[in-house]
UniProtKB/TrEMBL annotation:
Annotated TM spans: none
Gene Ontology biological-process annotations: carbohydrate metabolic process
GO MF term list: hydrolase activity, hydrolyzing O-glycosyl compounds
This protein's name: Beta-xylosidase
Pfam families per record: Glyco_hydro_39
Key words of the record: Glycosidase, Hydrolase, Signal
InterPro entries xref list: GH, GH39_cat, Glyco_hydro_39, Glycosyl_Hydrolase_39
Domain Glycosyl hydrolases family 39 N-terminal catalytic: 36-532
Signal peptide positions on this chain: 1-21
Active-site feature positions: E211 (proton donor)
SUPFAM superfamilies associated with the record: (Trans)glycosidases, Glycosyl hydrolase domain
UniProt source species: Arsenicibacter rosenii
Family the entry assigns: Belongs to the glycosyl hydrolase 39 family.
């Protein structure tokens, strides 16, 4: 039966890829231009670098060859520190890397049941971040084997195509002894201070667990809350100025998830603390997850950005309903088009969007709406973690949700490079375009295309990101965009136009043109690395601004993303 299912999936995937390829040729632009007006003199708040957050399941990839290379590139794309979140930092094991698995052996016990702490692998992971100027979102989990109430089976050997629920083994259970757990947390924070210094550790975010409302936590809601109380108390005893948060539930739009999140927030406000007996529990930031839901419709992958945005909005709504907590920073701990990064497209045809420009255009359009949702709810959005990294020593462009394959960057990484070039002060874009954040939240993008922009400025630079997105993974005709940047100083300005599309910033299309080699030569790899970099659409051009306005017109292919920067003396 499993073989039959795989064959059916392969056949469906072939249909999807064939249908997509049939429309991949260059298309003429539509006749009706889209007019986008940017008003530099109309502030729209701070463009918080919520995109500068990344995460992944497999912590041991961190210090492997391609992992270190990608982390360097991620660190370099941002002027601000990039935060990194990884699972399994307290899992028992030998540090072997595998899909949806990782271990550090940080905690074991001797023959007398006494704790043995070993921070060697944890340090190797965090050293890799700190050396690059990155910051850990230090995830406190999962349960060490010696501490689990149900330790066996402990290690899983999941692979794409296996039952996803098979991963929830002994590491997902509560501790036998909450005091021992608290001491482990205390020792980890103290060790971090000794190794990296108090000031550095104060800049981290400590969080408890991952998605405790589903299989990642095999205890009850109350047992998670109890674990949080002991964890938060231990963190604060070791470093009173440390930042601790949770609960990292997934899908606030689901009724059971919302119930879990509210139970947690009720407790931190007014519950009796399990560890101290006092009222409430320390909470410095709030976390939850939000995912989209792609599917295959008539042989075409169809995304569902609305599902992701509704989850985000529900999470914001819940937080905003707590007057004592509304001001706290929110970190969307995983914010992605769907849920399983390691579910490759060869076995999961709905994920056949990840290698190309669908993923990059989705990312541009969705991040812009996260800002809008936060502003509308009046909450403090600090970060939105893209749960995508790399999968070491896997087939080229296999279709994992990752930022690079075998050390070669995918188009989606270039969107983050674009974000990294945008100044910090958001400005207004005309609101009479086809979609605003409410329409995308409620309807996704199923009618006309979403052609829109995000813009910002500082004293000597403006930047405008423009995307051409639709939920259907089809490369229909390009759009003509008439862009007007208003509020510029008169005189000469220098314009750079960066582009992600089928021909630019796209190693995947270059790989396909090579014949999709399973083992590219060294020369081909060099060519692919170059193709994966963010590319200019054309050479930089000087323009003369009169009456404060710069008009620009260009064609933007479906799934294309442009970044136009304008700088002046």
């Amino acid at each position: 039966m499993m073989l039959l299912n795989r064959l059916l999936c392969a056949a469906l995937l072939a249909t999807v890829l064939t249908a997509t390829a049939a429309t991949a040729q260059t298309q003429p632009a539509t006749t009706n231009p889209t007019s986008i007006r940017v008003e530099l003199n109309k502030p729209a708040g701070t463009l918080q670098p919520v995109w500068a957050w990344f995460g992944y399941d497999e912590p041991n990839y961190t210090y492997m060859k391609d992992g270190k290379k990608l982390l360097t590139e991620i660190a370099n794309l941002s002027k601000v520190p990039v935060y990194v979140r990884a699972h399994s930092l307290l899992v028992t094991g030998d540090g072997e890397a595998a899909l949806k698995w990782g271990s550090t052996n940080a905690y074991t016990e001797d023959a007398n049941g006494q704790p043995v702490y070993n921070w060697t692998i944890v340090d190797r992971i965090f050293d890799t971040y700190i050396e690059r100027g990155m910051k850990p979102v230090a995830q406190i989990g999962f349960m060490p084997e010696a501490m689990s109430v149900k330790p066996q089976p402990y290690r899983h050997h999941w692979k794409p195509g296996d039952n996803y629920n098979d991963i929830y083994t002994g590491w997902a259970y509560p501790p036998k002894d909450y005091q021992k757990w608290a001491e482990l947390v205390y020792q980890w924070v103290k060790h971090s201070i000794d190794r990296y210094g108090r000031k550095e550790v104060e800049s981290w975010y400590w969080e408890l667990w991952n998605e405790p409302n589903i299989g990642y936590w095999k205890g009850t809601t109350d047992e998670y809350i109890k674990l949080y109380d002991y964890t938060a108390d231990a963190v604060k005893r070791a470093l009173p100025t440390a930042k601790i948060g949770g609960p990292e539930v997934t899908g606030p739009g689901w009724s059971e998830s919302a119930k879990f999140l509210k139970a947690f927030l009720d407790h931190v406000v007014s519950g009796k603390n399990y560890a101290t007996g006092k009222t409430g529990s320390p909470l410095d930031f709030i976390t939850f997850h939000a995912k989209g839901a792609p599917k295959v419709v008539n042989g075409i992958v169809q995304m569902n950005m609305g599902t992701q945005l509704r989850d985000i909005d529900k999470g914001f709504e819940i937080v905003a309903s707590y007057p004592k907590l509304k001001h706290l920073p929110i970190i969307i701990g995983e914010s992605d088009p769907e849920g399983c990064a390691a579910c490759s497209e060869d076995l999961h045809p709905q994920n056949a969007y990840r290698n190309g420009t669908m993923y990059s255009s989705y990312t541009a359009a969705s991040f812009a709406r996260k800002y809008d949702l936060a502003n509308a709810r009046g909450v403090n959005l600090l970060g939105a973690v893209t749960w995508a990294f790399e999968f070491e020593n896997q087939a080229w462009f296999r279709g994992f949700r990752d930022l690079a394959t075998n050390g070669v960057d995918k188009p989606v990484l270039n969107v983050f490079r674009m974000f990294g070039m945008m100044p910090a002060n958001r400005v207004q874009v005309n609101n009479d375009l086809a979609y605003n954040y409410l329409r995308v939240r409620d309807q996704s993008v199923r009618a006309e295309a979403d052609i829109n922009a995000l813009a910002s400025k500082d004293d000597r630079k403006a930047a405008v990101m423009v995307w051409h997105y639709h939920d259907d993974n089809l490369l229909t005709p390009a759009a003509q965009v008439d862009l007007s940047v208003n509020g510029l100083p008169d005189g000469r300005v220098l314009v750079h136009h960066y582009r992600i599309d089928q021909e630019h910033s796209n190693a995947y299309e270059r790989w396909k043109k090579m014949g999709s080699p399973k083992a590219p030569t060294a020369e081909q790899i060099t060519e692919l690395e170059k193709a994966g970099e963010l590319a200019l659409l054309e050479a930089p051009v000087w323009h003369t601004v009169t009456k404060g306005t710069l008009p620009l017109s260009f064609n933007l292919p479906r799934q294309g993303v442009s970044l136009i920067t304008v700088s002046w003396p």
